[in-house]
Amino acid sequence: MPNNTIGSRVYLDMVGPHTEHAACFKKIMADTSRFLKLKEPITISLQFLNRPAMARLNAAYRKKQGPTDTITFALEQSPEFIRPPKLDIRILGDMYLCLPQIRENARKAGIPFDEELHYVFVHGLLHLLGYDHETDKGYQQMTGLMEKILFPHDGRS
Predict the structure, then answer these.
(1) In a domain, 89, yes or no
(2) Distance, first Cα to last Cα, the chain
(3) Which residues pair with 25 in a beta bridge?
(4) What are the binding residues?
(5) Which has the closest alpha carbon to 22: 5, 36, 38?
(6) How many distinct structural domains can be found in the chain?
(7) Which residues are annotated as a binding site for Zn(2+)?
(8) What is the extent of the structural domain holding 146?
């Protein structure tokens, strides 16, 4: 797996044929890291799945039928996780994206594919950082962060 870096703050291991999105994903990771004032460099593993593979993952881990746009597995939230004491990077976990599902979501919402892709990526990244939207407060916090990260200069937030 290639190790792609922006400076010394962001590392992205991508698996799959969609490397044309790598630069944008790394920029979003760097922007998120700066916005949240993360002290350590971060890394994630990113994989792309087709609809049948995503549907299987969704059924196995979320007990939901059909594909979804993203599923994340946050390493730090695992009860078995023990952070190595001298590790100078924060390993967030694994993110799986289903581009066909993201493309369909964008079409249904009437927005450009890239906008939906960026939204879903930030959403997954925030999950890897421990944010969730299971409560109204969590939803408002996560939605607000996503808006500020994706649209820092347009006054949406």
Answers:
(1) yes
(2) 37
(3) none
(4) 123, 127, 133
(5) 5
(6) 1
(7) 123, 127, 133
(8) 3-150
Summarize pLDDT for 46-85 with one digit per residue, the tens. 999 999 999 999 999 999 999 999 999 998 887 777 777 7
Place of tokens 């979804």: 68
Any domain includes 157: no
Please give the structure tokens belonging to residue 87: 């590790």
Instruction: Give the Å distances, CA to CA, from 5 to 30, 120, 134.
Output: 10, 21, 32
> Does residue 63 lie in a domain region?
yes
- Which residue(s) pair with 10 in the sheet? 6, 42
Q: For residues 142 and 133, is the Cβ–Cβ distance under 8 A?
A: yes
Q: Per residue in 88-131, pLDDT tens?
A: 888 899 999 999 999 999 999 999 999 999 999 999 999 999 99
Any domain includes 156: no
CATH code at position 62: 3.40.390.30
